Amino acid sequence: MLNPSPILHPKAAALRDRITQLRSELAAVIEARTELELWEGPALEALYLTKIGPLELRKLKIQAETSRSQRRLELLQRELNRGITITRKVLIAIDQELETEMAAWQARLLEREQAIRTGQAQVDVPLLKLQEIKCLKAHYRHLCRLLHPDLRGGETTLFKRYWHEVQRAYRRADVELLESLLTAIKAGQEDMVQPILDSLTALQEECERLRALIARQTERLCELRTVPPYCYAMQLKDERWMAAKIAALEAEIAHEEQIQQHMLLTLESMLDSLCATKH
Question: Are 125 and 137 in contact (CB under 8 A)?
Answer without folding.
Answer: no
